[in-house]
Amino acid sequence: MALSLTIALGLASCGDSSSAEPLIPFVSFNESISILDQRYPQLRTDNGSVEIAGGVRGLIIVRQNATTYLAFERNCPYRPYDAACSTVTIDASRLFLIDDCCGSQFTLQGQPRGGPAPRPLRQYATSLSGNLLTITN
Q1: Residue 4: partners with Cβ closer than 8 Å, 6 or more residues away
Q2: For 98, phi and psi rounded to 5 degrees?
Q3: Does 118 reside within a domain?
Q4: Domain annotation covers residue 116
Q5: What residue numbers bound the domain in which 122 lies?
Q6: Can you give the pTM of this predicted structure?
Q7: Which of 18, 101, 105, 130 has the highest local Cβ count within 10 Å?
Q8: What CATH number corresponds to the domain at position 115?
Q9: Which residue, 119, 131, 124, is CA-closest to 61?
């Protein structure tokens, strides 16, 4: 009996430690931008990225290729409710994304590459129709 209880308690303590981290709030939105808009010249080259309004703290749009665009929440998954911080930006090198407050870094595909962030950036759905890119959650 004691062995069964010990095993059960041990298994209960196992698991993904990131599940203890708070999740980013959910906000419903539907944003559309023209990829030819003069404000977004970076969206005309592969791996180009821009920051726009939408989501919780804004969106980062990354062009993978001429037909594929990725959209990520700018709210960092590490301490997402920290009002003074927790905002991801495009690094000055334009090679990765970063939260300057906590030091978390992410690839242009939204995957963590350094720092305390426990999970990837929240990714949103994108669809391209002609020159109109629509981002929704």
Answers
A1: none
A2: -150, 145
A3: yes
A4: yes
A5: 22-136
A6: 0.83
A7: 105
A8: 2.102.10.10
A9: 124
Q: Assess if residue 2 is contained within a domain.
A: no
Residues 6+ apart with CB under 8 A from 52: 31, 33, 40, 58, 59, 61
Q: Is residue 8 part of a domain?
A: no
Rounded to whole angstroms, how far apart are CA atoms 41 and 58? 18
**Per-residue model confidence (pLDDT) at position 20:** 56
Mean pLDDT across the chain, nearest whole number?
87
Q: Residue 2 is which amino acid?
A: A
Q: Which two tokens stand for residue 102?
A: 């906590």
Residue 18: DSSP 8-state: G
Nearest-angstrom CA–CA distance, 16 and 134: 33
Token pair of 47 as six digits: 């791996």
pLDDT along the chain (137 residues), means of 10: 41 44 85 97 97 95 98 95 89 96 97 96 97 97
